[in-house]
Amino acid sequence: MARKILIWAIFYAATIVAASSAVLWEIQSYYFALEQPFYAPPAWLFGPVWTILYIFIATIGYRIVMAPQSDVKPILIALWTLQFALNTIWTPSFFGAQNLGVALIYIAALDVTVLITMVLLWSRDRISFWLAAPYMAWIGFATALNAGFLILNG
User: Fold this and answer.
1) By residue range, what is the domain housing residue 41?
2) How far is it, in rounded angstroms, from Cα 153 to Cα 29?
3) Which of left, alpha, beta for 98 (phi over 0: left; psi -120 to 50: alpha)?
4) Cα separation of 73 and 93, whole Å?
5) 91-120: b or e for each residue (b if 16 or more CB lie within 10 Å)?
């Protein structure tokens, strides 16, 4: 039981660190300085949405690691790690480097990684699949938003 709690705590702590790394960048001043696509949501929406999604992401990682050993488990662990890295690197690419093109590449790779993960989860862990569905929807929207910012702001 202590092992499960420790693994759970590691996943949730990692997501908190990744989420809180956004404070390193001048997010609001840069975001509001950009010409906004017509479909850009209000800035206040990002915090609540990402809070929920990070809980889902951590839960998926925990469930993958705690699942019985299988041929696909190492692939799922690698995919979860890759999506987590891509998710984390997007913020400094978009807000820190202010490179909308590079950020778009990262988020497109994130889309593909999460989609592949979902395909593998479908027949193995439906709970994780359904936890990944809103994440996929949001990053799909975020990809369109990133592209819109790139088109409008060059």
Assistant:
1) 2-153
2) 15
3) left
4) 30
5) bbbbbbebebeebbebbebbbebbeebbeb
Residue 27's nearest CA partner among 107, 91, 101 is: 91
| Whole-prediction pTM | 0.91
Q: Supply the pLDDT for residue 25.
A: 66
Residue 102 corresponds to which amino acid? V
Instruction: Note the pLDDT tens digit of each residue in 32-79.
Output: 999 999 999 998 899 899 999 999 999 999 999 999 999 999 999 999
CATH assignment of the domain containing 98: 1.20.1260.100
Domain count, the chain: 1
Could you tell me the CA-to-CA distances from 67 to 71, 72, 94, 154 in Å, in that order? 12, 10, 34, 44
Kindly compute the dihedral angle of the four CA atoms of residues 142, 93, 10, 44, in this order, to the nearest 10 degrees. -50
Beta carbons of 113 and 60 less than 8 angstroms apart: no
